[in-house]
Amino acid sequence: MASEDEIKIVLERLRIIPRTVKLNIGSYGSFSRDRLIEEVTNKTEIGELVVKMQMSYLRSFKERVKQ
Amino acid sequence: MTDKSDSFLITTPESDDVLYYCSKWSKEIIEQARKKGWHVTNLEQEKANKTNFEGHVKKQQPDFVMFNGHGMPDFIAGHNDEILLKKGENEALMRGRIIYARSCYALSELGITCVQNGANAFVSYSLPFSFVSDPNRSAHPTKDELAAPCMVTSNMVPLSILKGQNVSDAVEKAKNKMAELISYWETRSDVVEAQFVASCLHWNKLALGFEGDGSASL
Predict the structure, then answer these.
(1) Do B17 and A56 touch (CB under 8 A)?
(2) pLDDT tens for residues B56-68?
(3) What whole-number distance in Å separates Cα of residue B1 and Cα of residue A54?
(4) Is residue B209 over pLDDT 70?
(5) Measured between beta carbons, which residues in chain A are less than 8 angstroms from residue B132?
(6) Which of B131, B198, B206 sits opposite A24 (nearest CB)?
(7) 3-state secondary structure of B6
(8) What ranges do the domains of chain B cover?
(9) CB-CB under 8 Å, B130 with A25
(10) Contact at 8 Å (CB) between B24 and B13?
């Protein structure tokens, strides 16, 4: 389960991308920015997955910057 | 049943946007295989159904099978999500073959049981395969700059295998390219979506792997 802080971070990241861009998550389908914001806000299965994906990337980025 | 002879079977359903992109990006793989003299069977669109799939595998005995299709841990689907390969049902069809599945989750269970049933190697993703796309380019997926990094790197696996590289090297090569592209995209300041492209590459890199014999080659 994503923490409230993680949700806030991911929502801020989503808000900077254009409305038109789509994130395609295999079997789950294609999602617009606004739909992703809705899914993350409502803590749905897709929302949780998006938070997991983004936080995994951010942690990896932080590790690479440290090196 | 015919003899096994440099035969490559690929599925390219197009029943939704994700599959349409995967199908269009598969043309490069099909062209390369044909140039190299492989006998290619492309189960495209509605032909990517279970009857055709099983029939072609039994008749042509392909050395290499590539799926573009939605997946779950225990199955891979084709057109309109019809299940083509399912754990505990027909994975023995993959005996003696190398498989690459551009499918979510399929590595985690189906990959293991295919190898237990005699597949040489099974390359796929243990998490959802993801990519960013630009709807303005949706009519021409191969011209979509945002989708290209994930598609190019996922195409590297079958292209390397078709060139004769072993499974382990093909996966490593694709992962190295993903790492290179992550660095490139996360430093781009001219594209607002750049970090999202980098995050999808990171996710696919985590998910890509193989079961079976890493030294297996065609």
Answers:
(1) no
(2) 999 999 999 999 9
(3) 49
(4) yes
(5) 21-24
(6) B131
(7) coil
(8) 7-212
(9) yes
(10) no
Sheet (strand A29-32) strand order = A29-32, A22-25, B130-133
| Helical packing angle, A45-66 and A33-41, nearest 10° | 100
Interface test with A, best of B107, B199, B205, B208 (most A CBs within 10 A): B199
Which CATH number is associated with domain B7-212?
3.40.50.1460
Which residues of chain A lie closer than 8 angstroms to B148, CB-CB?
none
Host H or E run for residue B178? helix B167-186
Angle of helix A45-66 relative to helix A4-15, nearest 10 degrees, comes to: 90
In this predicted model, what pLDDT tens digit does every residue of B114-156 receive, in sequence order? 999 999 999 999 999 999 999 999 999 999 999 999 999 999 9
Q: Where are the domains of chain A?
A: 4-66
Instruction: Say if the Cβ atoms of B71 and A23 lie within 8 Å.
Output: no
- What does the pLDDT read at residue B5? 58
B88 pLDDT higher than 90: yes
The ipTM estimated for the assembled molecules is 0.95
Single-letter residue type at B72: M
SS3 call for B124: strand
Q: Any CB–CB contact under 8 A between A15 and chain B? A: no
Chain-chain contact of A24 with B199 (C-beta, under 8 angstroms): no
pLDDT tens digit sequence for B1-15: 444 459 999 999 999
Residue B69 confidence class, pLDDT cut points 50, 70, 90 = very high
Token digits of residue A22: 């789509």
Question: Smallest Cβ distance to A26: which of B129, B134, B198?
Answer: B129
Provide the token pair at B97: 């073959």
Q: What is the model's pLDDT at position B3? A: 42
Backbone angles phi, psi at A47, to 5 degrees: -60, -45
